[in-house]
């Protein structure tokens, strides 16, 4: 009887730990920080869609620009200010990303 109780308690503890580790909990702070999971670092929340829409508003091909900008924003966590130029403000992640044809990817 006692061994059955210990087994049930151990199984309940294991299920609780698995649920705690596998869940992604989002908590938004007043400073727009998002916490995801137990072992992940703090990531700033970015509205990539809105920032890229502004960035690509004057582009000759706005849909293509928005798609590339969205990819760069998600990967680099940055979108340069303005509608063109200023790419160096986002660092090497943004400036060094290239397409398969070795052209710069990020607008």
From TrEMBL:
InterPro entries: GASA. Keywords: Signal. Residues 1-23 form the signal peptide. It comes from the Eukaryota. PANTHER family: EXTENSIN, PROLINE-RICH PROTEIN (PTHR23201), GIBBERELLIN-REGULATED PROTEIN 2-RELATED (PTHR23201:SF18). Belongs to the GASA family. This is Gibberellin-regulated protein 11-like. It comes from Forsythia ovata. The lineage of its organism: Eukaryota, Viridiplantae, Streptophyta, Embryophyta, Tracheophyta.
